Amino acid sequence: MLAAWVAAVVAVPYGWVLGRVRAYPPSGRGVALFAVDHTWSLVNTIAGAGFLTVNLARGHHLDPPRCCHRGRIDIHEQAMRGYATTLGNVIAGGTAANERHEDLHVRQARLLGPLYLPLVGLNYVLFSVLPVWWLYHDHDGYPITGPGRYFTRGVYLHVWHEAWAYRRDVRDRYGDLPVRRPGRRRPRRAHRHGDHDHYTDDKT
């Protein structure tokens, strides 16, 4: 009984929002995305629906123009101050600047389905207690100055799904130039002409 009540609390707002923002395009692609999100990636979609419900309960607002026919749900406000957050097919705090980054997290969930959240969680735990990333971290550009920075400038930047998204961000911005993703130290060699350092304040 309790499980059914909880499911309704999450499912009803989610279903209403899907129709309200017209999240999926009326095309074969839209049908395929809907099918993946509600079969293979169902666990992620349920998590996203819960995330959506919590944000709506906090008084946050939908962003229909940003998500119409995009295969996702956008919430205007950030769930965590200073960060865009994506869970399943729900994005909170997305902007034009970080849209492709957050969209990649949606696609990662669709690709890995029920494995996605466990793999993300496992990587966070492992990198928190066993910081192998320390060996290749850019300590000059992203100094670790305390416990908070350990997670926001260290663990967070190096977990696999964020590293993947930031690498793509750098490729979008710099193309084939030899630019490292945020947090990744460059090889210890002389700078060649045309090389660039990449520092960012993005927190997505």
TrEMBL record:
<feature type="transmembrane region" description="Helical">
    <location>
        <begin position="115"/>
        <end position="136"/>
    </location>
</feature>
<keyword id="KW-0472">Membrane</keyword>
<feature type="region of interest" description="Disordered">
    <location>
        <begin position="177"/>
        <end position="204"/>
    </location>
</feature>
<feature type="compositionally biased region" description="Basic and acidic residues">
    <location>
        <begin position="194"/>
        <end position="204"/>
    </location>
</feature>
<feature type="compositionally biased region" description="Basic residues">
    <location>
        <begin position="181"/>
        <end position="193"/>
    </location>
</feature>
<keyword id="KW-1133">Transmembrane helix</keyword>
<keyword id="KW-0812">Transmembrane</keyword>
<protein>
    <submittedName>
        <fullName>Uncharacterized protein</fullName>
    </submittedName>
</protein>
<feature type="transmembrane region" description="Helical">
    <location>
        <begin position="39"/>
        <end position="57"/>
    </location>
</feature>
